[in-house]
Amino acid sequence: MGRSLTSETDAETGTMTFDAVRGVQAKKEFYSAMVSFKTIAEHFKFDDPTLGADQRAQRIVRSSRVPTLANYIIQNPDNYVFSSITLSVGGKMTFHPTPGLGELGRTGTLIISMNSPLLINDGQHRCAAIKEVYSKHKEFQNEKVSVVFFLDKGLKRSQQIFADLNKHAVKPTKSLGLLYDHRDTYARFIVNLSKDVEIFRGRTEMERASISSRSRNFFTLNGIADATRYLLKLKTKSIPPEKQKLAVEFWDAVGNAMSDWQLLLDKDSKVSPAELRALYVHSHTNMLNAIGIAGHVLVTQHTDWKKMLKKLNTIPWERTDPVWQGKIMIDNVMQKNKIGIKKAADYILLKCGSSTTLDEFENKEKET
Asked: Over 209-235, what HEC string results?
């Protein structure tokens, strides 16, 4: 790593010292400092998981999340990003402003007793990952992450901090996660696929997981991603060129076979994406998934799968058609149901001329 280690702990005085910035929130002082992985691993404390939820200030650490976060750091030592950790200090904190700034100076030195309980309010999975990284790779000990320190005024206050920090947090949509993830090979492939396939190009919602009634988009990026995952059934993170080519050819063939979709390519057509989405099921994520599932069977079992896909145009795609009831529609409302999606895939296979049902195909795959 080649970074100098800043001494943060002093065993003789029993204190931890950090360069910090002082702020005021809701008339209460708090401090922000950069803290090394070593100090976090050796001094930050997790709630006792044996305590009842009402006796803890945090949710229980989900051990399954920790290896993924730890590997993220280890595999990206030069460009990983971790957001701030929030901590409650159950003891006295002393802040000494930088000389010359006066008693109200915002920058200075924060001193905390090593005996003070340090309770993680937000970021405990990040801390657990940091501890795992530090335990196996001491070369990361000098790495630092920003930490916000609050004075702990008891369990009730710590619980409220956790609630306040998480109450208004909004998880990014799957589409936006795919669009912005430049490390994930599949995410980059899907973003490129949305541009390479004619029917997807310029008609894909890249940010939201759903489409508003006024939008000119017809598909969602996460819908294309899910359906293509069913189509290819990749066994590794890498995507061979032949698989990439297959995905483009498959969705182009589907687009050419769907006369309703072709209306979107016709400059003279007055049909809007919103009208098609309101009347038909074929652009919704559930149906794209069903097409992807059926597509995997077709491209695996039949050399003339492109010819078979032309029969997609014989399927009654109207939302009101009885064939979709009990599959992906209930009382004309779209349902996200895995069993229903598989039933829809079976129907698509039948209409495309496949003699193999989905169950038969899956049983053969298990045997091989």
From this structure: CCCCCCCCCCEEHHHHHHHHHHHHCCC
Cα(63)–Cα(361) distance, integer angstroms? 36
Token pair in block for residue 6: 């800043």
H helix runs in 98-240, sequence order: 124-136, 155-167, 174-180, 185-196, 221-232
For 51, other C-beta atoms within 10 Å of its C-beta total 11
161/58 Cα distance (integer angstroms): 10
Q: Kindly report, residue by residue over 242-289, the tens digit of the pLDDT.
A: 999 999 999 999 999 999 999 999 888 888 999 999 899 998 999 999
CA pair distance 63, 271, nearest whole angstrom: 51
How confident is the model over 113-134, as a mean pLDDT? Answer: 88
Question: Which pair of tokens denotes residue 141?
Answer: 């000990």
Helix 358-367 with 285-301: angle, nearest 10 deg: 60
Count other C-beta atoms under 10 Å from residue 334's C-beta: 16
Residue pair 172/222 in contact (Cβ under 8 Å)? The answer is no
Which amino acid makes up residue 205? E
Residue carrying the six token digits 């698989």: 243
Pairwise CA distance, residues 73 & 146, whole Å: 15
For residues 35 and 89, give the distance between their C-alpha atoms in angstroms, rounded to a whole number: 14
**CB distance 341 to 328 below 8 Å:** yes
Question: What are the tokens at 283?
Answer: 């652009």
pLDDT tens digits along 319-346:
989 999 888 887 777 777 888 899 999 9
Among candidate residues 192, 216, 218, 220, the one with its CA nearest the CA of residue 206: 220
- Which residue in the block uniquely carries the two structure tokens 């498959």? 250
Strands 85-89 and 144-151: parallel
* CB burial readout 142-157, b (16+ within 10 A) else e: ebbbebbbbebeebee
Which residues partner with 24 through β-bridges?
Answer: 29
- The span from the CA of 233 to the CA of 300, in Å, is 11
Domain boundaries of the chain, sorted by first residue: 9-167, 174-367
> Within a 10 A sphere around the Cβ of 3, how many other Cβ atoms?
12
Of 346, 330, 245, 249, the residue nearest 293 (C-alpha): 346
